[in-house]
Design a protein that fits this description.
By secondary structure, the chain is mainly α. It is 74% helix and 0% strand. The protein has helices spanning 9-39, 46-67, 74-105, 116-134, 153-192, 198-214, 217-237, 244-255, 257-266, 269-282, 285-288, 300-307, 312-318. The radius of gyration is 22 Å and the shape is globular.
């Protein structure tokens, strides 16, 4: 996040308010997905388990962003390193989702559940490594509401290498992976379109709807961190001059990452269906009729759409 150099006290108060508000939205969205996973047993498939770990990382990242800089000293360092650790873990979990999708769809492997321990080692281990490396030559400053602000050229370089470098590596990997998945399924759909019956065509349309959503996943990280990356580069070039509007975009979009992830990855039709099934049990019929009918699966086409959510369709079909 942005430092306070070149910004007035009023500017920092505005940035603090933006950070708190956006992080609170992300915390609420991520906590909702975590709660759904804990409450609804039918969601505890491997594909959604990865989304749960992503939401958990986002929730903790947002929590420490909300906490801000509690004090100078130990709590400052604890807040700074915790924020760094869980934010890195968040975008690394998105790469495990992309990897799982690629392995099941493109490579036709059914062993992804056996890799869960490796995923944990990869995500938590990598997050810990870059957080520890970040401490070398680190000098946390008490600027603005965050304690992971770096001062000095060395500290800024270490911050860039331990956060933004792996971040953009994850963005490139996700983009390349989803491109391969989408291209393969589109080719398969074109080959099958002339020899399929109506049910298969509806299945293909459901798959294409899922494909359209998968294509947007890499854009979440880009939208969340593009302004932050530009702000870091500008800070290298002109360290004594902060651009207020760029800092606003940096902080606002980065703090909303958890909300974006919870909507895109977590709030799928499987979650909505689980919620509406509970509401149908407890709400009076006259109130339930007011709920959107599109969220209540009743016909074959909608059932196909539910089966297309994230990775679960491909895993279940191949198992």
């Amino acid at each position: 996040m942005s430092g306070g150099g070149g910004l007035t006290a009023g500017d920092r108060r505005i940035l603090t308010a933006i950070n708190t508000g956006a992080s609170s939205l992300s915390f609420a969205g991520s906590a909702f997905i975590v709660l759904c996973y804990c409450l609804f047993k039918e969601l505890r498939k491997f594909s959604f388990k990865l989304v749960f770990y992503l939401a958990l990382s986002d929730m903790l990242c947002s929590f420490f962003l909300i906490v801000g800089d509690p004090s100078r000293g130990f709590f400052c360092y604890a807040q700074g390193y915790s924020t760094h650790f869980f934010c890195v873990a968040s975008f690394l979990w998105t790469t495990t989702i992309a990897f799982t999708l690629h392995r099941t769809v493109v490579r036709h492997k059914t062993d992804v559940e056996d890799l869960e321990a490796m995923f944990h080692l990869y995500v938590w281990g990598s997050s810990l490594v870059v957080t520890v490396i970040r401490s070398f030559g680190n000098n946390h400053s008490h600027l603005g509401p965050w304690c992971w602000t770096q001062t000095g050229l060395k500290g800024k370089a270490v911050h860039f290498l331990t956060f933004y470098a792996p971040l953009w590596g994850a963005i490139l990997y996700n983009g390349f992976t989803y491109f391969q998945v989408i291209r393969m399924l589109k080719n398969a759909r074109r080959m099958a379109v002339g020899m399929s019956d109506r049910a298969d065509q509806l299945d293909a349309r459901a798959d294409m709807k899922a494909l359209n959503r998968w294509g947007y996943y890499p854009l979440i990280l880009i939208g969340s961190w593009a302004f932050g990356t530009i702000n870091r580069i500008h800070d290298f070039i002109e360290p004594g001059h902060k651009i207020f509007w760029l800092s606003v975009l940096d902080i606002g979009t980065a703090a909303l990452m958890g909300l974006f992830n919870s909507i895109a990855y977590g709030l799928n039709s499987s979650v909505r269906r689980a919620i509406y099934e509970r509401l149908e049990l407890f709400l009076p019929e006259r109130l339930y009729r007011w709920l959107p009918s599109s969220s209540r699966p009743r016909n074959h086409h909608q059932q196909l759409q539910h089966r297309s959510e994230l990775v679960s369709l491909k895993i279940e079909e191949q198992q």
